[in-house]
Amino acid sequence: MNYQTLKQWDHRYLWHPFTPQQYWEEEKPLIIERGRGCYLYDTGGKRYIDGVSSLWVTVHGHTHPALNRAIRGQLNRVAHSTLLGLSHEPAIALARGLIRVAPPGLGRVFYSDSGSTAVEIALKMAFQYWANRGESRKQSFIRLENAYHGDTIGAVSVGGIPLFHQVYGPLLFRSYEAPSPYCYRCPLGKKPDRCRLACLDRLEKLLARRSETTAAFILEPLVQGAAGMITFPPGYLRRARALCNRYRVLLIADEVAVGFGRTGTLFACEQEEVTPDLLCVGKGLTGGYLPLAATLTTEEIYEAFLGRVEETKTFYHGHTYTGNPLACAAAVENLRLLDRPDFFSTLREKIQLLEQLLKPFRELAHVGEVRQKGFMVGLELVRDRESKTMFPPELRLGHRVILEARKYGIVIRPLGDVIVLMPPLTIPRKALKELVAGTYQAVRSVTASP
Ligand SMILES: Cc1ncc(COP(=O)(O)O)c(C=O)c1O
Question: What is the pLDDT of residues 141-158, one digit of tens each?
Fold first, then answer.
């Protein structure tokens, strides 16, 4: 089909996610035809570096032979069979594989199909865990300011991004907000080198006041992704875990964005030796090939759901495509590829290279902060560096930067005025340099005349 027809039909029939359609219909859509390694190719054959891993999912690159083979192999056996009342080998193998590499203490895997559902399940499990134990006052949740955990109503109820979440207020259950460890714009007005993580004191106060009625505290470990790649100060996660223990509140770690190597270790929680009570994974679980997610939990939580049927302790939750065999087969292969002996040492070298490459951004007049954790980067654009004043949203500066970046053969997607770089973990060094250099040119030229 030619580009003009595709464009016309896109504008006529499609409604794109998280997209102001009014603007979209005025733009020429970039239509992707195929991918290979860290590259995407449009319908005209132009090549782009996939600078955000197709929305933070691609781990080993596109059309990876081993992942393709794993999916094809499973396709020849069965494309789908349910986990409701039946089982299948890819789901069993993957559950075992996940538990072997997950933070110690996690023992059970419950599948679903998106990050949002993995979170939804964690919230419901936490809620019902306490109910099943006869502590049904523990019903509410604590979350961070700027939190993003997905778009279903439960996940939105523990969300903290007003632009996305405020309108649904009347639909949501209440959750209590703890300050975000957003050091660049500290909500408590502290300086990072002297704050002693005062934001955790606020969390502690909240826990102390509400522990009797709180089921769980949910957070994204090490990086608040959709909030603008907000990187946590060291020690925050470990101390948050200790507080949850002290106040008998479950800890839900949402590793949907940070899992599978993104932060330089397989799971972000590893870096502070934390085992959450519930761990949510999605996105990179299949290497970025198919929709699959999982909620991992401890044997203790699992056991609270055992009992005779009349005790109604069962977890009555399950999506039709839960644990789809094709997706599980891809995920098993993903774990195998991540387990190669040199995978993380090579990644760590590239993380250091990325750190070096990002240095010139600090000199740009309109880059307020350069944030990096592993292969997650946020470049926060500001009108004035001194006062940290933001650009007016109607300028759509972040959006303009990503359109400019396409001229350099780069596909990226911003979070407001935070430019995100999150390439596939196997991106070659040369392409990584091109990605950063092209993004630099795009930021420089757009911010020169905002
Ligand atoms: C931390 C986090 N949790 C949950 C989600 C929701 O995942 P999904 O879009 O697969 O529903 C996202 C998506 O970006 C995320 O970043």
Answer: 999 999 999 999 999 999
Q: Is the domain 68-338 a CATH 3.40.640.10 member?
A: yes
Residues with CB under 6 A from ligand 1: 114-116, 119, 148-150, 220, 225-226, 254, 256-257, 282
What local confidence, expressed as pLDDT, does residue 434 receive? 98
Domain map (residue ranges) of the chain: 31-63+342-448, 68-338
Q: What is the DSSP letter of 180?
A: P
Regions of the chain with pLDDT less than 50: none
Assess contact for 357 and 432: CB atoms under 8 A. Answer: yes
At 181 the pLDDT is 96
How buried is 239 (Cβ within 10 angstroms: 0-12 exposed, 13-18 middle, 19+ buried)?
middle
Ligand 1 site-directed mutation target among 164, 222, 223, 256, most atoms within 8 Å of CB: 256
Backbone φ and ψ of 206, nearest 5°: -65, -45
| Residue nearest ligand 1's atom 16 by CA | 257
How are beta strands 214-219 and 376-381 bridged, if at all? unpaired
pTM of the model: 0.98
> What confidence score (pLDDT) does residue 288 get?
98
Q: Is domain 31-63+342-448 annotated with CATH 3.90.1150.10?
A: yes
Contact 301, 278 (CB under 8 A): yes
